[in-house]
Structure formats: C-alpha cells, structure tokens
Amino acid sequence: MNTVKLFALSACLLPSLSFAHNISLNQPVPSVTVKQYGEITYINDAPTYQKWNSEHLKGKVRVLQAIAGRSSAKAMNADLMSAITLEKFPESTYQTTTIINQNDSIWGTGGFVKSSAEESKKEFSWSSMVLDENGKVANAWDLKSESSTIIVQNKKGNVIFVKEGKLSSDEIKQVIALIYAQL
C-alpha cells in the first residue's frame, strides 16, 4: 500500500521535476544578453570578445546550437554540423550560431572550453561563436544541462524548429530542408 502511494506521489511530482526549454515555435527565442565573454571575433589574428544579444539574430536563416561546454555535448549533434558545412549555404543569407555554456563544463576544464571555442571560431570564421561564461542563455531558455539544443530560425528571427538532445538522421534531413525552404 505504501509503495502505491509513493508511486502516485512520484508521478504527480514528475512533471515539475522534468526540464523543458521555454522556446516556442513561430516566436523569437527569449531575449538574453551575454556579457561574460560573449561573441568571439578575431582582430589581427587574436581572439577578442564582444557583448552578444539574441535580439541581433534577425536578418538571416540561422541554426542556433546551444551546447554545454563538454565534448559529449559538442559531439551530440556533430552530424548536423557536418551536414550544414557540406551544404555550403550562402553566407549572405545563412549563419550558424554556436552558443557554448562554459558554466556547464566539467570542473577545471573552463580554460580548455575557452581555447576550443576560439579554435572553432578560427576554423569556421563565417559562423558566429558565443562563449557564455555564466550560462545566461541556458538559464534564459531553460535548457537541459550537459546537452545540445538545436534551433532553426527564419529571417524574421522566429523559431521554426527546436529540439534538445541528439537529432535523428530524419531530423537532420528536416533541418537541412527547412534551411533551404527559408533561403
């Protein structure tokens, strides 16, 4: 009898314990500003940081990849990132924005996360890279920890696809098709 009551109580509490993003289709992502570090740019071959704000995401079709500062989170949707790279979408109308939550990294690896982000920006200079030292984006968007979230936005900045976790091969095809449809 006590087991049944415990199970019923657990079932009632489960929805409040689950984590779910607060990103809605056909709406912009919730507004957020990253001041610590921010968007990575290069000046004279040296990485620099500038304040980043989600309000500046309009004007291009975008794939936002919000990831924990962990290699496992980066690997989670590496297949999608490879597929996007192979498509060679026009830079004038498309951009990938990767937001790295340095606050969600394994203790003691913050410096590695930062240098890895800087190297990625150098390798994929046409992409936007944001290093979020304090996890402002993950908090503002209620993202799962230790994970990867993929968001596709149209040129108006409205979300047309969102998923937390690893995308299936069909979902990767869906994202590529959505990008082409919006260009």
Automatic annotation (TrEMBL):
Keywords: Signal. Residues 1-20 form the signal peptide. InterPro entries: YtfJ_HI0045 (IPR006513). It comes from the Bacteria. This is YtfJ family protein.
